[in-house]
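so my prof wants the structure for this chain in the tokens format not the other one, which i didnt know existed until like an hour ago. anyway here's the sequence
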Amino acid sequence: MSVVVRRNYPARNLPDDLKKGIDPSKDVTIMIVEEERPRQVMTFEEIFATRTSPYLTRRDIDDHIRSLREDRDDG
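here's what i got, hopefully its the right format
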């Protein structure tokens, strides 16, 4: 994170949106802090959508058992 501090800066040199409410004959201290960009946070729904099921479907189980039986019968 970057920080820039300028002391005794003439208020009259400030941009218009920062001059409001400040006496232009005064000096000011300016501190600029670079903000970090927030990381994109996933919603619960997005996290859930990326999840893969740890369980096999009934068809997957049947296919696996069938292949085991075929391997046994071929040998």
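also thought this was worth mentioning. The helical segments are 16-19, 44-50, 58-74.
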